Amino acid sequence: MIRINIPGFKTSDPGGPRWGDAQIIDDGKNFEVIDGYCGAGTSHLISHLKARGIKSPYLHISHAHYDHYYGIRQIIRDSYFKPKALYCYDPSFLGDVSNDVKSEKSTLRSIISEAKSKGIQVVYLKDGDRLVHGEIRINVFLEKPKWTGNSDAYINDGSLCYYFPDILYMTSGDGPDDIAETCKRKGIKPVLIKIPHHGNACPRTPSTWLKKNGCIYCWDNDYSTKITDFLQTGREDCIAVGMRYFNCIGDLNMVACNGRMYIYKGGQAISYKCPYNGKSTLKSANLTIIKKVLGGSLGTGEARTTNLLDAGYYPLGVQKQVNEIVKLVKG
């Protein structure tokens, strides 16, 4: 079984709900942490990793921006964790187009140095690389940044892009063109994408092409209410062409097994076919877990779904049993 967990935002988070990116992808034995949020998001991510007992993840930094690398740096510094490796691009990949870019490259080099000093293997990823960790297979793509009119946009545009062929899922950092351009260049047809949330006045992600080529589902973490030329989002484009959109207020969970990917959100499990045929390891409801749900110790809403999955239970199956018990008691 392969699981993806995106620890969600709270609307009450200090400074607003948008705090960069973070994803946890695992097969039960191997754990990938792609980006690490910043601020309140990082605290939430690290608490979640510790609660799940994830001590030795593979760490990934999609690009040299604070709201992506900050949490990874905190994981490296935290004595609880013993990361297996740190994956990122070679800082020299960016070039020296401005002082801002030089500064971010310097910080990335510092993080790399810290990792090496802790005995963590550092691997520079480049376009065309492949990673295999247990049942998790990743194809890596990296487009050279094209936008030089703004330093932030330039770094965003060069984000690492990961494709998981067995679950038909593609994710990138913030680059506006990475996913669609990579898909067109490589002939890839993902069903689910993480929307790169910055448009940065570059040509926006051609969602129409993605939809025509089989992309049905999407998610992102950008809750900006004021869309400017600098801070744009592909969310509106994806929704406009008919993709099913999942927000990241509250956790977002996905589970792949037996040839299907299940997306858990809003008390539902929407699914699509995928090549991955690993068996499910989720358990059915029992009296102990039902008592916990009824007692409120597993939280509510998306948090309950995450906690049930963390405990190894099929969340909708448990909730169905809980609903039946409540109905009988009320009746």
Detailed description of the structure:
The protein has 331 residues and is of the alpha/beta class. It folds into 2 domains: 2-250, Ribonuclease Z/Hydroxyacylglutathione hydrolase-like (Metallo-beta-lactamase, Chain A, 4-Layer Sandwich); 282-330, no CATH class. It is 32% helix and 22% strand. The chain contains 10 helices and 16 strands. It has helices at residues 40-51, 66-77, 99-117, 151-157, 178-186, 207-212, 235-240, 287-295, 301-310, 315-330, and strands spanning 2-6, 22-26, 31-36, 58-60, 85-88, 121-124, 130-133, 136-142, 160-164, 169-172, 192-194, 217-219, 244-246, 252-257, 260-265, 268-273. The strands form 2 sheets. It has a 9-stranded mixed sheet with strand order 6-5-4-3-2-1-14-15-16. A 7-stranded mixed sheet has the order 7-8-9-10-11-12-13. Helix 1 (40-51) crosses helix 2 (66-77) and helix 8 crosses helix 10 (315-330). The model has no long low-confidence stretch (mean pLDDT 89).
Detail the poorly predicted runs.
none
End-to-end span in angstroms?
Answer: 38 Å
Rg over CA atoms:
20 Å
**Count of strand segments:** 16
Strand content: 15-25%
Main beta sheet strand tally, sense and closure: 9 strands, mixed
Q: Provide the residue-averaged pLDDT.
A: 89
CATH class of the largest domain: Alpha Beta
Topology at a glance:
Blueprint: E1 2-6, E2 22-26, E3 31-36, H1 40-51, E4 58-60, H2 66-77, E5 85-88, H3 99-117, E6 121-124, E7 130-133, E8 136-142, H4 151-157, E9 160-164, E10 169-172, H5 178-186, E11 192-194, H6 207-212, E12 217-219, H7 235-240, E13 244-246, E14 252-257, E15 260-265, E16 268-273, H8 287-295, H9 301-310, H10 315-330
Parallel strand pairs: 3-4, 4-5, 5-6, 10-11, 11-12, 12-13
Antiparallel strand pairs: 1-2, 1-14, 2-3, 7-8, 8-9, 9-10, 14-15, 15-16
Helix pairs in contact: 1-2, 2-3, 8-10
